[in-house]
Amino acid sequence: MSTDEPRWLDDDEQEAWLALVSTGTRLPAALDRQLQRDAGISHFEYQVLAWLSMSPERTLRMSALANFVDGSLSRLSHTAKRLEKEGWIRRTPDPANGRYTLAVLTDQGWDKVAAATPGHVAEVRRLVFDPLTKAQQKQLRQIGRRISNAIGPDNACPATTND
């Protein structure tokens, strides 16, 4: 057992931490409410559809998709079953390696994510970008990347530019 005293948060760090925790809890819930209300899907389901829509040939291995949406394979499989039932995705063995399963966005899935995206983007803009100045938006991007990389660079969200 270590006898070293923990590095306690000072008052400013404590306030910043609580603000981050509050945002990390409340933002996904707010985005989920908007998507449920306007598109009849959860934020997690939207993320699955959106990642597939941005992928080459609208296809990803389930393991890669689980990593992108930060969900377990079990959770993703359960969600994929629902999305398949709706006709929005299909799952198929990976022809390159049959041990893997591919998730493929169907044309109906493309239509669903395309219909849901304008409202989702408007809500993201309202909740995240409109309250911030351009300088704060840049800081948010830099801070988000640093925290994400500290958590683990292998799981970091793909970025288009480096800061």
UniProtKB/TrEMBL annotation:
Pfam families named in the record: MarR (PF01047)
Lineage top rank: taxon: Bacteria
InterPro entries per record: HTH_MarR-typ, MarR/SlyA-like, WH-like_DNA-bd_sf, WH_DNA-bd_sf
Record domain HTH marR-type: where: 13-149
Protein name: MarR family winged helix-turn-helix transcriptional regulator
